[in-house]
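User: Show me a protein chain along with its predicted structure.
Assistant: Here is one chain, sequence first, then structure tokens.
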Amino acid sequence: MTSTDTLENLTSPDPAAASDSSTAPQGAPLMLALHQTALGGPEVLQLTKVPRPAPGPGQILVAVHAAGLNPTDFKHRALSIFLPPPPLTLGWDVSGTVVETGFGVTLFRPGDEVFGMLPYPHGAGSHAEHVAGPARAFAAKPAGIDHVQAAALPLAALTAWQALVETAGLRAGQRVLVHAAAGGVGHLAVQIAKERGAHVTGTASAPKHDFLRELGADACIDYRCEDFTDTEERYDVVLDALGGETATRSVSVLRPGGVLVSLLPGDEDTKAAAEKAQVRAVTLLVEHDHAGMRAIAELVDRGSLRAHVSGIFPLAEGSQAHVLGERGHTTGKLVITVR
């Protein structure tokens, strides 16, 4: 964490630069945040003083210990996708300690360790020293993991859980294909599918196949030199984090009645192919979910789920994490530490 001396040496932002801290009362104390006032590359991210938010009704204020990074952070830093233009502070994954509770909160008390995903997409702001969010976006942090591990889980694990369990209704004995299986969502999806008793095939480059097998994958496909459609294998579920042509081609490896869950918008070709093949093709946008976070915590407690963290960066070096993450070859997750 940045020292008090460093904090005092930073200049206070102008009001416009902190306008996304809408829950901060006038005269609120300041905190450090990885903040941006323009869209662009990683260089637009600056360690900046912004007003500390206050918890509203049904919210908790969390002192952030660690916050995960996801591809959506890189995309929103560069483009206005779901969020309004800057100024803004990104970050949806968070693990930390409850500092204060708003009116009506009964789940948590100050001092509780929690982890969760802020409401996606409009609840961003975890890449900072404090964040306020709905109490029911959080769950108690599993005691057996640290804040770095906990911060790596929420968005990616909720995405995998909502895709495989809640959307596809994955059952024991079914066969699943996970694209980009060594990535943030993918490596957690492999573990969740195995815990459900499924047979799991993952696509990844050959050097990552041993990693996938350690996670429980039953079969691996090297996307660089193998065509995943060149097989007699038929899957009950395909989880696709790539979109485009990959989504359309994935329809051909599904059984009739199977489910394709894409994390990027599908096109008309995918929809037409799905209708012809008599399979279901849907696009998932992850939602904050207290029950889902509790289910993830239970998997962690049972030893069935663990995030692989391939890089840890202090808040002041968050822009470097963006540089690494945007290369698109990260195994597992990147995490920013605050405390």
